[in-house]
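stuck on this fold:
=====
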Amino acid sequence: MIAEMRLQWWLDAIADIYEGRGARGHEVLGQLAAIIDTHDLPRDVFDNMINARRFDIYREPHADRAAFDRYVAATSSGIMGLAARVLGADAITIKDISFAAGVASLLRAAPELIARGCKPLPGDIEQVIDAAYLKLGKRIDKTAFPAALTGWRARAALQSARKNPEFILSGLLEESPAWRRFSFLRCRLTRRF
């Protein structure tokens, strides 16, 4: 109930901004309202992201693969796409990396979510992992790159999950600190994920 109330508060706060009632007294909202106005950010991305997070509250699985894909798109691709727009890039340029990053993040979070009784992964998770992995490797435009950089760990998580699917549930998808540094540096230098 409290989680539902928090999500509703954010939906109402976003509605206030878009409907001209101003930003509520929250440290983030004033700045967010200015960014929304300056960059003409679409409201539906915010609404979809907040509504998608309702799934995280409950314990039902995704209805099907399409529902899972919509969840990842709303929670990962949406926010990366907004960041790309703010940087002056087209959100479509990072659509693939944002999806792969969303899947990788969910794989890393899966053990904790499952321990809480949630069912975050679809039945065809190995196909999802393969599809997400195939979205990697493209060079990202210099303008959009900072928005995509949050996905720099996607390759390592997806490779590990492809090779050892059992690592997902055991929480062993984490990279060593040395590999993490190398991976980040490789991303920065090549703009490839």
User: Anything to note?
Assistant: The chain has two domains: 1-40, 45-190. The mean pLDDT is 93.
